[in-house]
Design brief:
It is built from eleven helices and eight strands. It is an alpha/beta fold. Strands 2-1-3-4-6-5-7-8 form an eight-stranded mixed beta sheet, with helices on both faces.
Length: 298
């Protein structure tokens, strides 16, 4: 009698996000939420400012999520999460994980002041930035997370963004918070592992999740996970962890990086770039990769 092969599960089986969300096809931000909630569990409260997820969740009183949600102003994800955590502790709830959940616009730009304040005070919150590299919910406008060379509606082809992406992780490291990490929806096991570690850590935790957006990147919905993996495999988005701004450790070591062209060619937002401009992008990725490897000790 043949033994049946059983598939080994690498992620928690529990689901806290239902199928009735309002996201676009192939939305990386929905995968980010699904994986984060798998790591956090039901005792979670989300503070969501203006962003794609303010819509994805569904119209009041409906929600695709099985956790508590507090919708707040664009600039207040971190401060709202800080207040909510304090309020829960006042009524004796010290178990609920309070999460500030925002996009790159509400993190890199509009919400940076509140995030910096919360980090400086070491508020006991987890802040998650799902990064799709533009203000996608309001029409694909440039943010400071938008990479060099990218088309957006405010950086059209003839005037594409000519500035590099803001290094939000260096900014957070300067605050010397207890835990911060980068993650990608292309590597869910790594993402969930980091979420669980963040959950068990006290003080301010920062998780930066790479979340491709087919609508804003002019990519195919079926390429979302592939792009999430290529961003790591090319060295464009290294996956690492840090504690108190130090002890940097690469969580996925890429021995032979793929050329950035493999990543770029799948996206219409870079289609206008010349060979020389693509070369500049590759050189910037190489330089940043070298810095990260040196910082993390290989």
């Amino acid at each position: 009698m043949k033994k049946e092969k059983t598939m080994k599960l690498t992620l928690p089986v529990e689901e806290y996000m239902g199928p009735g969300h309002l996201a676009c096809q192939g939305c990386g931000a929905t995968l980010a939420m699904r994986y984060v909630l798998k790591g956090l569990g039901p005792k979670t409260a989300l503070c969501i400012p203006a962003c794609c997820w303010a819509v994805i969740d569904g119209p009041f009183p409906y929600s695709c999520l099985e956790v508590s949600i507090f919708h707040c102003a664009f600039e207040t994800a971190a401060s709202s999460a800080s207040g909510l955590k304090a309020g829960l502790e006042m009524v004796g709830d010290k178990e609920t994980t309070v999460v500030g959940w925002a996009g790159d616009g509400g993190t890199f730009d509009i919400g940076l002041q509140a995030l910096s304040g919360a980090a400086e005070r070491n508020e006991d919150i987890l802040y998650v930035c799902y990064d799709n590299e533009a203000y996608m919910n309001t029409g694909i406008q440039r943010s400071s997370a938008t990479p060099y060379g990218a088309w957006t509606t405010t950086t059209p082809v003839k005037h594409f963004k000519n500035r590099p992406k803001k290094d939000i992780n260096a900014i957070m490291a300067a605050h010397r918070i207890p835990y911060q990490a980068t993650a990608s929806i292309g590597y869910p096991e790594d993402l969930v592992k980091k979420v669980k570690k963040a959950k068990e850590t006290k003080g301010t935790r920062f998780l930066h999740i790479y979340s491709p957006c087919p609508a804003g990147w002019k990519s195919r919905p079926e390429d979302t996970v592939k792009l999430g993996r290529l961003a790591v495999q090319t060295g464009l988005f290294p996956l690492f962890e840090m504690e108190y701004g130090e002890n940097c450790k690469l969580s996925i070591k890429v021995k032979e990086r793929k050329p950035l062209a493999d990543y770029v060619k799948l996206q219409g937002r870079f289609r206008h770039l010349s060979a020389e401009e693509l070369k500049l992008m590759q050189e910037e990725v190489d330089a940043r990769w070298a810095r990260i490897v040196a910082q993390c000790g290989g």
